[in-house]
Every structure is written in C-alpha cells, then in structure tokens.
Amino acid sequence: MANAIAEQAPAKVNLALAVTGRRRDGYHLIDTLAVFADIGDRLSLAPAAGLSLDVTGPFSGDLSDPGDNLVLRAATMLRDAAFEPETAPGAQVRLEKHLPVASGIGGGSADAAAALRGLNSLWRLDWTEEDLAGLGVRLGADIPMCLTGRPLRATGIGEDIAPLRDFPALHLVLVNPGVAVSTAEVFAGCTGRFSGDLPDPSGISDLDSALVWLGDTANDLEGPAIRIAPVVDAVLNALRAGEGCLLARMSGSGATCFGIYRDDGAARAAAESIRAARPHWWAVATKTGGGSSTSG
Ligand SMILES: C[C@](O)(CO)[C@H](O)COP(=O)(O)OP(=O)(O)OC[C@H]1O[C@@H](n2ccc(N)nc2=O)[C@H](O)[C@@H]1O
Ligand SMILES: Nc1ncnc2c1ncn2[C@@H]1O[C@H](COP(=O)(O)OP(=O)(O)OP(=O)(O)O)[C@@H](O)[C@H]1O
Prior knowledge:
Layout: E1 5-22, E2 28-48, E3 51-56, H1 70-82, E4 90-96, H2 107-122, H3 129-136, H4 143-148, E5 152-155, E6 160-163, E7 171-176, H5 183-188, H6 207-215, H7 222-228, H8 231-241, E8 247-250, E9 257-261, H9 264-277, E10 282-287
Parallel strand pairs: 3-4
Antiparallel strand pairs: 1-2, 2-4, 2-5, 5-6, 7-9, 7-10, 8-9
Helix pairs in contact: 1-2, 2-3
Residues 14, 17, 26-28, 30, 32, 106, 109, 140-142, 157-158, 183-184, 187, 252-253 line the site of 4-diphosphocytidyl-2-C-methyl-D-erythritol.
C-alpha cells in the first residue's frame, strides 16, 4: 500500500503473575512481569476515507466479524477521541494474524496497541504513550503493557507500568495446544486466597538472576486455567520433559505456555521436537527483547 505505515504487534509473555486482589467492578488486581517476543502479528496502515480492516495470515480464520476486531475498536476510539465527526480521517488497516487467538499472549491487545501507535503517527496526533495507554485500557487491560513493548512490571489491573531496563533478553519456546481459553472465565476461577506482591525484580540483569527470581514466583492463573482446559498441564509436561528446558510456565490466562532455554540452539531444538511429537500444537522458538532493546 502506498504511504503505508508498518507496525509490529509482538507476543506478550507473562513470566510471572500474582493475583493480589479484586476491585469492586470485578476486575482483578495483578502483579506481573511481562516480556515481548520477536514474533507477533503485523499491521499496515494507510490513509483512506473511512476505517476498514482486512485480516490475513495463519490464524485469520479464528477471527469472525471484523467489526468486533480490537483493531477497529481501538481505531474508532482514537478517532472519536481526537477528532470532530466532520473532520475525522480514516485508515485502511491490514492485519496479518500469526498469533493464536485467545491464547494468553495478548494477540488482540498487541494488535490494538499497534493500531493505536500506527494511527497516532498516520494521523499526526502526537499523543504520548501514556495518553494512548489511558485510552487503550478502556478496551483491554493488556493494551498499556503492549504499548510499552519491553520488559516491565505491571500492577493495578495491568495498567501501572514500570519498565525493567536491565532485564535480559531470553530464549523461549511458546507452545499453544489449539484450545481457546476465555480470560474472563479463568479470572472467575480465582476463588482462593489472593497472593502477595511479586518479589522486587529490579535487580535481574542476566539469565541466572532471572531464573532465581522466577523460582520464587508463579502464575496464579495456571490452576484455574488447567481446571478449564486440562491440556495446559500436558503442554507444561511436554515442555518440562524436553531437553534444555530451564523453567516452564503458563503465560497470562493461557493456554499458551513457555519454556526458557540457555540459547537459541536449545530453544529451536525443543520447539522442533514438540512440533514433531504434537503436529497439531503451535510451537515456536523466539527471543524476547531485553530492557535496553528498542525493538521490544
Ligand atoms: C491475564 C492478562 O493477560 C495478564 O497480562 C491480563 O490481565 C488480561 O488482559 P486482557 O485480556 O486485556 O483482559 P480484558 O479484555 O481487559 O478483560 C477480560 C476479562 O478478564 C477479567 N479481568 C481482566 C483483567 C484483570 N486485571 N482482571 C480481570 O478480572 C475481567 O472479567 C474482564 O472482563
Ligand atoms: N485482533 C484480534 N486478535 C485476537 N483476538 C481478537 C482480536 N480482535 C478481537 N479479538 C477477540 O478477543 C478475544 C481474546 O483476544 P486475545 O487474543 O487478546 O486474548 P489472549 O490471547 O487471551 O490475550 P491476553 O493475554 O491479553 O489475555 C478473542 O475472543 C477474540 O475473538
């Protein structure tokens, strides 16, 4: 597309997640450490009279009505907040869907964040990341995190963000068994006692210190997700049984789980052997951006 802006929408991985309380409106308070992968969806945004969306890519078939797509909903919110109806611009948006849908790695939120970033630039709005996050959180609690796109600790319902500038890049394998899990249902299954805050992650600067810190943490949504989708347990076992896996855990509200590996070779070999044993699962090796990374 002529004059199109390209935006990446990287997968978000919650390395640890504590559910620390519940607000009166039913939203849960969380404390999470999230990083962003070098794989994700891709958007392109071009000037046009109205707003439109085309979806392609391996997971496009799992998204039904484009009108319900978080990309168009975010675009409409930004347009309505920034312009009078008579001067409102449009955009032709193309979304290549490479991330499984409803899978705990923020696909829809990553796409919405990328749309907000891209339209901010296409429409020359000059909104800050904070302004965009304030708008985006009304659509999805993960959108502020996805706008940051670098290692971070998030509290509140996920909108209070503290970047972790020293956090290392990590070699991960992401595995999704092809079962969509509803975030709302998983949170509704958090019926036990709430956790305390995560330990302070600010001293983490390399793989070994990350592993020590991770060993003292968990994802509190893992139990509720396994009750809804027992296959999550099979994914964790498959990761743990493979060679070179240093730690395996579920991301977000599932069902995607991640394994951590010492290097790219170990991660690629593990992804390959999971794909060979379970051809219907999605298993990819990825490197996450470190705290000083500009590409997220
Ligand atoms: C699990 C995480 O992915 C971790 O990063 C997020 O907390 C979920 O973020 P999200 O998918 O953007 O969630 P939303 O689309 O805002 O919310 C979906 C539903 O999940 C529940 N929800 C979500 C976020 C949160 N902090 N507490 C909740 O209880 C609410 O029932 C909400 O109606
Ligand atoms: N662009 C989009 N990509 C993915 N899902 C979308 C999109 N637009 C709307 N949705 C809807 O949003 C719901 C969940 O989206 P998403 O993929 O963000 O969940 P998730 O992977 O569990 O993310 P999170 O980690 O934020 O909980 C699905 O029901 C899906 O139909």
